[in-house]
Design a protein that fits this description.
Layout lengths: L1 E6 L21 H15 L3 E6 L1 H10 L6 E4 L13 H6 L2 H5 L6 E4 L3 E3 L5 H4 L3 E3 L2 E3 L4 H12 L7 H5 L8 E3 L3 E4 L2 H15 L2 H9 L6 H4 L4 H17 L4 E2 L18 E3 L7 H12 L4 H10 L6
Parallel strand pairs: 1-2, 1-4, 2-3, 6-10
Antiparallel strand pairs: 4-9, 5-11, 6-9, 7-8
């Protein structure tokens, strides 16, 4: 099975990441954690794949020496118009699968996610498994969903949202820190819908409404959940008549820090601004990955060796 990663630099400016404003309070930890996740994936028998833009290849492979089995430099022009920070990731596990030669089961990791331990075999055999299910009633995501219903017709690609407007579950989505897909039909529909949605006029309109913010990715940042996570959840309900299986078997947007996790799965996600938390993961990564990678990352960011 392939373990797929993506690095898309346009949302933070597409230039020197040392000068960029990212989600990470300690920017270099992102690459130590990525190296750790990739190394663990290799240890557990996954074939690792990186989808990136030219800058990503220069940074991750040529500068840091993080090793992937397959590298696809395909993200420079993945968006028709710059809108969605998740576009690079979505490309990787939709159109990117096509560029690898066609569908076969895969796991997609965010760059801050992975397995500390060998995952159970049944995790990897799921039709669709995600990190957790989030319930969006009363949140900004519910408001976005309601706007879509109000301003679009019940036709492709918005029909999937209209279809579930009166469902008993309410608006839900699957947190995509990790996604396992064994269902080719679900993957094909996700590919077909995501790109039709991202290139639709309504999201161009929404992007243009905010005239004070010049960064399109910041304007559209909260819409990524609808495009990726709510969509996949509803498509799976349509095709397989069930909710996804999850890593954290509970309802909620993220896992409590003290949650017992026998699978050894991790996703830093909302703790990227927590310096103490990141320092913990820095030590975990440095204790495991190739010393040369650590040295190259520290040198690039002008960080003193620990």
């Amino acid at each position: 099975m392939k373990a797929i990663y993506a690095f898309y630099s346009k949302p933070f400016g597409g230039g020197d990441i040392r000068k960029a404003s990212t989600h990470w309070s300690i920017p270099y930890v992102e690459f130590l954690v990525m190296a750790y996740s990739v190394s663990k994936s290799k240890e557990y028998g996954f074939e690792t794949v990186l989808f990136c833009d030219r800058y990503g290849k220069e940074l991750i492979l040529d500068t840091f020496g993080i090793k992937f089995d397959i590298v696809k430099v395909e993200l420079d022009d993945c968006e028709l118009y710059p809108k969605f920070w998740a576009a690079g990731k979505i490309y990787a596990y939709s159109k990117g699968i096509e560029s690898l030669g066609g569908f076969e089961p895969f796991v997609m990791f965010d760059n801050d996610a992975g397995f500390h331990k060998q995952p159970p075999a049944h995790f990897m055999a799921s039709k669709y498994r995600c990190q957790s299910i989030h319930i969006d009633a009363g949140t900004i995501f519910q408001k976005q969903y309601d706007r879509i219903l109000k301003e679009t017709k019940n036709e492709f690609p918005f029909d999937i949202f209209h279809e579930f407007k009166d469902n008993n579950d309410g608006v839900r989505g699957g947190n995509a820190g990790m996604v396992v897909i064994n269902d080719e039909r679900l993957w094909a529909e996700f590919t077909r819908y995501t790109w039709a949605l991202m290139e639709s006029d309504i999201f161009t309109k929404i992007r243009r409404e905010n005239t004070k913010e010049l960064n399109s990715y910041k304007v559209m940042s909260m819409w990524n959940v609808l495009i990726e996570e709510n969509l996949m959840y509803f498509l799976n309900k349509r095709l397989n008549l069930e909710a996804p299986q999850t890593v954290f078997e509970f309802n909620g947007f993220s896992a409590p820090m003290n949650l017992h996790n026998p699978t050894g799965y991790f996703h830093i996600w909302g703790s990227k601004k927590n310096v103490n938390f990141l320092k913990k993961y820095e030590q975990i990564a440095v204790s495991y990955i190739d010393k040369q990678i650590t040295e190259k990352v520290y040198k690039y960011f002008n960080v003193k060796w620990q």
